[in-house]
Amino acid sequence: MDASRNKAEIRAPAVATAVAAAVATAVAKFAAQLRARLPENATLWVGLSGGRDSVVLLHLARQLLPERVRALHVHHGLSPHADAWAAFCEQLCREWDIPCTLKKVEVPRHDGQGVEAAARHARYQAFRESAAEYLALAHHRRDQAETLLFNLCRGAGVVGAAAMPPQRQIGNPTLLRPLLDVGADAIAAYATAEQLRWVEDESNADPRYSRNFLRHQILPELKTRFPAAETTLARAASHFAEAQELLDDLAAQDDKAIAGQLAPHLPPLLALSPARQANWLRYWLKQQNWHTPETAALREALRQLATLTEKPDRHFTLKLPEGELRLWQNRLYCVPHIAPLTQRAWDGKTPCKWADGWLTLEPCPGAGLSAVLVAGKTFTLRPRQGGEQIVPQANRPHRPLKKLLQENRIPPWQRERLPLIFVDDELVAVPDVAVAAKWQCQTGQAGVQVSYQKTGEIQKS
Question: Are residues 49 and 187 in the same domain?
Fold first, then answer.
């Protein structure tokens, strides 16, 4: 990115000589990060909690991009002071003439996560649902050191040890962390010199939270022996990030042989070493935006897959938060969870959501259902129960739907998700499988084709 694109400069505050150089360096690093990562004329949103770090970030952004800054405050509702913090953020933005968006979220308390993790999940969901294309967060060097220690204590691999990246895509917004190379002391000095106001979150002092324990007890103790601990830990995180880039490059090369444009094929995967198998599977699941299981579970899944190569009946399932990893005809598929399916009426005129796809009727002269026969009819959509039959050819006997699904190479899990289309109690069509003979459109007649477009699943085969 051409540094000359942004002519605006940030005025470094007047501070004592002892910290002036550190503050000036911090300001310069911030400006360089934004110029390198923010496209020309793009609007920058700032995640504004009301705390010191986010207020400093907003103040810096306002100087560098005076007409292109927005603020986003996520109201978690966890603290009795949450309303006051939201009011503070809105008032600050009014004073600085910055548009501010307030987003209230519900933090689940009983979903198996700790409060920290649940709040983070809710916060990031709010980020994804915002109008922001570029969203800056105020994480700094000490936060990076804490994240590295926290992840290592949880047994994280290279991805976790890489801690927080300076830039990351989370759906629509691109997250930027332009203060990641800046020390907490420099941020504090800047806030004092500029006489900024902020709020204090009382939970930041509670040692019951793991990050606070690391911040207030472990890191200070480390710094008595290793004064530059924060800097060196943050540097180590950047080394791990480089290592992860190399692992991703290797996985991308392996992916060409394992998947290419198709669902991943088991034999070339099992031809790799165990470490490369696990590396590729992590990479592939990440590409699908699915969570990666713990290393032990990942290796156990690969071990099970290796035992299936000589068995004709290959049943394999790996349960993940988003759904299941399934094996069919030596290929791997991500099968997302769906809500239970129930019978419903459908007029055929508007698209209908069903399972993991959308059902529509498309004009198709001479094929599909007879437009004359279905005119004015209300369809009934039903999930498969077992034992259904249909007559796909005139003057031929009924055929079991199960047999037709097998012949059409429909994966087992999709057999249970296909919408069966009835008129009254008669099965007239199954998308991608069959149309009942007496309901079929004849050559030269107007017809409608049942289309079922599935989403959220790797369907290629």
Answer: yes
From first CA to last CA, the distance across the chain in angstroms is 41
Q: Mark whether 365 and 415 lie in a shared domain.
A: yes
Residue with tokens 């004073």: 95
Is residue 22 within 8 A of residue 189, CB to CB? The reply is: yes
Using pLDDT thresholds of 50, 70 and 90, give the confidence band for residue 3. very low
In whole angstroms, give the CA distance from residue 38 to residue 64: 12
The pLDDT value given to residue 170:
86
Query: What is d(CA 453, CA 436) in angstroms, rounded to the nearest whole number?
Result: 21
- Whether residue 319 is found in the same domain as residue 369: no
Q: What range does the domain containing 330 cover?
A: 259-336
**What pTM does this model have?**
0.77
The type of residue at 428 is V
Q: Is residue 444 part of a domain?
A: yes
* Cα–Cα distance, 33 to 10 (Å, whole number): 13
Q: What are phi and psi of 436, to 5 degrees?
A: -60, 135
CA distance 78 to 273: 47
The pLDDT of residue 4: 37
Looking at the structure, do residues 201 and 321 belong to the same domain, yes or no? no
DSSP string of 188-209? HHHHHHTT------GGGG-TTS
pLDDT digit string, tens, across residues 369-405: 888 888 878 889 999 998 888 888 877 778 899 999 9
